[in-house]
Structure formats: structure tokens, C-alpha cells
Amino acid sequence: MPNQSPVVSPHELERSSVVANSTMNRARGLTGVNGYARELGFEPLEFLAGRPAPAWLDLCSGEGRALRQAAAALPATATLTGVDLVGPLARAPAPPVLEEIIASVGSWAPVRTYDLITCVHGLHYVGDQLGLLTRAASWLTPDGLLAAHLDPDSIRRSDGSPAGRPALAALRAAGFHYSSRHHRITLRGGRALTLPFRYTGADPAAGPNYTGQPAVASHYEHEHQ
After folding, report:
1. Could you tell me the pTM of the whole model?
2. pLDDT digits (tens, 9 = 90+) for 94-103
3. Average pLDDT for residues 76-90, to the nearest whole number?
4. Distance of CA 213 to CAs 17, 86, 151, Å?
5. If you average pLDDT over residues 166-172, what whole number do you get?
6. Could you tell me which CATH number the domain at 10-222 has?
7. Residue 123: exposed, middle, or buried by beta-carbon count in 10 A (0-12, 13-18, 19+)?
8. Alpha-helical segments (H) within the chain
9. How far is CA 169 from CA 49, 147, 163, 165, 197, in A?
């Protein structure tokens, strides 16, 4: 049997060096070698084009450069929301269509739905990764798109053993699509859903994931159905 892995409280997790000092999205913009378009496999502005009042929610948005760049290209009727635990370090005024929120994505919830929800390499630093995906699914518009990076190896049972395969099976059964090549998970269309997993805690000392950066392991009990 695997050894019981150390787990910490949500407060301890967010104060850990792996989560609180994450620089993954600090300088990432819309385009370029490490831009959102390349990382997500599609152009966010093209996806939002033609909508009279496009709405984009970016979770773990870092400095919010991608949203700020998008704001300049979208109509004044757009709604852009960035949520990050640390938030922008440079306090330049945000464009009128952009709201930058400093909060934990594990507890924050919007008051509206969005056409596009993204989380670019952000789930690597979230305790309850499956819980956030479940909640975000209900924040989508009927024809909206959720796109995030997910490392199945970071999904584990309470004893530390792998739980990525049953987690992916449950996500696919709920309507998600997962690309193992790109480590991207997507969902089309907002919906309320549940997954047969109960979150039991997270381990910020799990070590590097496929990105080569230290990441969090999320622990669950699999509630077989």
C-alpha cells in the first residue's frame, strides 16, 4: 500500500511557496511563443468574435496581460474577469471592461455566466481541481467553452496512489474532452454536474509535474457508483 501523503488545509496550501509564489501566468499574453492562443490551441478573440456582449472569465490570471490585450480588441459591451490569488503586481488602471479580482479560485464564484472560461496552467496550483472544474461547468453559457490544463498524474487517492484514470473517465462521462497530448481539458456548454469524488486535501510538496515546475497533488476518495 502507498504511504499516506501529507495534506494541508486550504489556508496552508495557499500560503505555501508552490502556490503563493507561482509565476506561471505572470507575463503570459494573448499571442506569442507562450501566449494563450498557443497554450489553449485556439484564438480566444476569434472564439468571442461576433458575440454582441462577449464574456470571458480567466481563472488564475496572473498579471492579466491576456485580458488587458483582449480588452483593446473587444467591444465596450464585453465583460472580462480575471481571478488570481495574488493578482496583478503592477497597479496600472484596468480597462473599463475588465474586472481584476484577487481571490482564491477555490472559494470564489461569479454572479453571471461566461462565453469563455480559461485556466491556463492554473489547475496545477489548485487544491480541489475536480471541484473547480465541476463548479466552472455551471458558469458557462449554453454555447460557452471551458478550457484548462490538467495533469491526471496530480489526481490521487487519499493514500497517495494514482486516481487519474478513474477521474478522467468520470470527466468524460460528464461531457468533458481531454487531450493527453496537450494536457488540455475542455467542455462545451454550461451544465450542472457532479463527479464521484470527494476531496480530502492537497499536497504542495508533490514535486514537479509535466511542465517541470513544482505543482500540487489533489487527493480524493472515489465514491464508486
Report:
1. 0.92
2. 899 999 999 9
3. 89
4. 12, 18, 12
5. 98
6. 3.40.50.150
7. buried
8. 10-15, 17-20, 36-40, 44-48, 65-71, 129-137, 164-173
9. 33, 17, 10, 6, 12
